Amino acid sequence: MGRQSVEVYTRGIIQSPQVVDSTSARGGTRTRTGDHPHRILSPVRLPVPPPGPSADSILSPVCGGENTGTLEQWSRWRFQVPSFNNQPVTGTILFEYHKAAMYEIVRSEEHYHFENDWLSTYWHFSFDHYYDPNNVQFGPLRVFNDDTVRPGKGFPTHSHREMEIVTYVIEGELKHQDSSGGSGIIGPGEVQRMSAGTGIRHSEFNASEDKPVHFLQMWIISAVPNLNSQYEQKRFTKARRQGVLLPIVSGRNHADALKIHQDTAFYVASLRPENNLIFETPSDRRVYFFVITGTIQMGEHTLKTGDSAKISEERSVPLAAQEESEILLIDLS
Questions:
Q1: d(Cα 138, Cα 286) in Å, to the nearest integer?
Q2: Other C-beta atoms lying within 10 Å of the C-beta of residue 147
Q3: Are 291 and 305 in contact (CB under 8 A)?
């Protein structure tokens, strides 16, 4: 980190015979002496010591107060301000260090596209014959495929292992059958979760002979090896996801969501222009965001149908619909 200087308080408790309490404010510290509020009008310039186990520099992760649910790194040390009300002021101040949030926006046409006589697909990560060593996975998210399959066609029987496979149908109907005995037809707004475990074989076909099926398939690396294979599916109505981020698949104790064996949660939302959401998450986690349809304003970034974003070191992700939109958000460890 090196030595730096900080000219504002981010948090602090000042204690002296004359200054008995303080609450922080950017640009200075609001204090209370007896019953009379005061403000240090000039920012106090304090040296920031490098990390280390000394008594004057203690770095520790904390979680609480107004940052409940976040995990940050702090530095705590004693300091002395030359004077305040003609009295020396000493105490302890707590400084917060933020890593810069990172947004990697990938436009729809920038995703790898493959097409043959029955399949049109966009692969967000390395898959099959497409390999990019710089784009293999994002945390435990290994595969994100945006597939459209022609009527009556599909993927013949093939095998998987040690993956949590999530399928979300956007339009049309997908017929599924696997070696665990799981089978069914998945329609729009329905989600399927399959834990491959030690091994599973399955097939996926368009259930219609005259309409295409459009669906997303995502693979999450399982955190629990050697499971028996499992399958389940569930329908979530548009009304339930209207104006809210609705958890549909989760390993994070969302009661009504399908369960996976990983510290990951999938959310969907149907948004109108008046809908403004904020997704909050600890800054040591990752977020993968995808616009199914519509236009979303994410802070300074505008994302349209088929665009995606990899987000890291961010505690608050703002989402504002510019038109009627459908979105998918994945909260990742």
A1: 8
A2: 22
A3: yes
31 strand-pairing partners: 22, 38
273: domain CATH number is 2.60.120.10
Looking up tokens 């707590």 gives 94
β-bridge pairing 258-259 and 246-250: parallel
Give the Cα separation of 70 and 316 in Å (integer). Answer: 10
Amino acid at 77: W
pLDDT in tens, 216-274: 999 999 999 999 988 899 999 999 999 999 999 999 989 999 999 999 999 999 999 99
Q: Give the separation between CA 258 and CA 290, rounded to whole angstroms.
A: 20
Of 132, 174, 177, nearest in space to 153 by CA:
174
Residues 71 and 141 placed together within one structural domain of the fold? no
Distance CA 329, CA 322 (A): 17
Q: Are residues 40 and 148 in the same domain?
A: no
- For residue 255, give every residue at least 6 positions away whose Cβ sits within 8 Å of its Cβ, in sequence order, or none: none
> First CA to last CA across the chain, in angstroms?
25
Rounded distance, CA 302 to CA 1, Å?
34
User: Does one domain contain both 163 and 88?
Assistant: no
The model's pTM: 0.71
The number of distinct structural domains making up the chain is 2
Q: Which residue has the tokens 């090896």?
A: 225
The 10s digit of each residue's pLDDT in 120-164 is 999 999 999 999 999 999 999 999 999 999 999 999 999 999 999
